[in-house]
Amino acid sequence: MKYSRAFRLYKFFLFIPFISISMFAVKAQDSLINYDEAKIPPYTLPDPLRLADGKRITSSTEWIRQQRPKMLQLFADNVYGKLPGKPKELHFVVSAIDSSALGGIAIRKQVTVFFTRASAEPKMEVLLYLPKYAKAPVPVCMGLNFYGNQTISNDAGIKLSTQWAPNDEEKHLENNRATEASRGTDAGKWPVEEIIKRGYGLATAYYGDLEPDYPEGWKTGIRSTMKSMLDINEQEWSAMGAWAWGLSRMMDYLETDTSVNAKQVVITGHSRLGKAALWAAANDIRFSIVISNNSGEGGAALSRRWFGETIKIINTSFPHWFVAKYKQYNDNPQSLPVDQHILLSLMAPRPLYVASADDDKWADPKGEFLSAKNAEPVYALFGKKGLGVNEMPPVNQPVGETIKYHIRKGQHDMTLYDWQRYLDFADKQFGK
Ligand code: GTR
């Protein structure tokens, strides 16, 4: 997104007139924002290898059997909430196929993922592009989008989203709905042709299909509509949980599509959707490569480092993103039993790419780097190499092996540069 963080926060407060937190709350937070390395108080990160009884684990088997489930549980209890499984009545309807999309290089499928037997709400619309001339099932990159499937490309065949969307002049979302003019307005984040030409498919869905992104969104999203089906109360999970859950349902569909190599699915997400992707991948090991693009606070960045966005700020601006208990750590991130390097450790031994942008101070690029760095001990249990450096690399110079990191020149965004690095990484990991 091109707007500054402050402006986008401002817009967020504007489009929800009934929001209880006033603009003054944002102003009051200014003093809570730090961009000075010298002012960061010392902090100690929890050790992912230390068991509750003080012993340290030394093998991948101990990690998988003993420590990993405990760490995952700590994130569920304190940060993201419970994550329910697949609903019994889940089913898919391929509603449209174009076998000559994007000027003839791709097949476009539009698939409705129904969460219940009834062919009505609640559902998620998945847009899938596949390289047309593939000789075998293809690897697929997947992730949620911010404004509706039609915004990711100018392809006129994409169905317009019918869900609630935030009003946005630049994206042409009006009266909380998509308009024809919204087509392709977020295409900069989705270089579909490039992905297809590299031999990958692309699957995406609008995150608002799962839960509209505002504090009361749970009332119309899956946390309410799927409540009895999933046997979970609305407040036992979070908006982040709802979005992560949708990513796993998208994976459920991909597993049924014979054109897709479901063993080679790359999960990705930008910013808040990067946070959702990380939470999805921590829970669901079917995602074989995990990519965090500028996910920041509550995503890849360390919470204990006082730089840019903080737990308190994120919980105040977006009270619905995480569970209520997370607010207990607003003034004391040190007391959180986990930190985000442990979330990244939950990806092990799968290849993990963490990316920052140098103008994206709000997301704390260094905190993202250090988080990836501190996931190395868990990867080492599997004999996997991490970043291989101790200092942040210069801009546009990726480092690392199974854990990779780059800091791109520029703003908070997901650009062609980022995608090219991710595809290079996937090629290497998949031996392409
Ligand atoms: C910001 C929020 C960030 C990030 C971002 C985005 O306003 O503070 O944590 O998620 O939104 O999603 O673009």
List keywords for this structure.
two-stranded antiparallel sheet, 13 helices, binds beta-D-galactopyranuronic acid, 12 strands, alpha/beta, 10-stranded mixed sheet, 432 residues, single chain, globular, 18% strand
Overview of the structural elements:
The model is unreliable at 9-29 (pLDDT under 50). The strands form two sheets. The protein has a ten-stranded mixed β-sheet with strand order 1-2-3-7-4-8-9-10-12-11, with helices on both faces. The protein has a two-stranded antiparallel ribbon with strand order 5-6. The two termini are 32 Å apart. The protein is globular, with a radius of gyration of 20 Å. It has helices spanning 5-14, 23-29, 60-80, 192-197, 222-225, 227-230, 239-256, 272-283, 311-317, 340-345, 365-373, 376-381, 416-429; strands at residues 91-101, 106-114, 123-131, 138-145, 173-174, 177-178, 201-206, 260-270, 289-293, 352-357, 399-400, 403-408. The longest helix is centred in the N-terminal third of the chain and has 21 residues, at 60-80. Helix 7 (239-256) packs across helix 8 (272-283). The relative contact order is 0.13. The chain has 432 residues and is an alpha/beta fold. It contains 13 helices and twelve strands. Strand 2 and strand 3 (123-131) form a beta hairpin. Bound molecules: beta-D-galactopyranuronic acid (GTR). Residues 1, 5, 8-9, 271-272, 296-297, 309, 314, 317 line the site of beta-D-galactopyranuronic acid. Beta-D-galactopyranuronic acid binds at residues 1, 5, 8-9, 271-272, 296-297, 309, 314, 317.
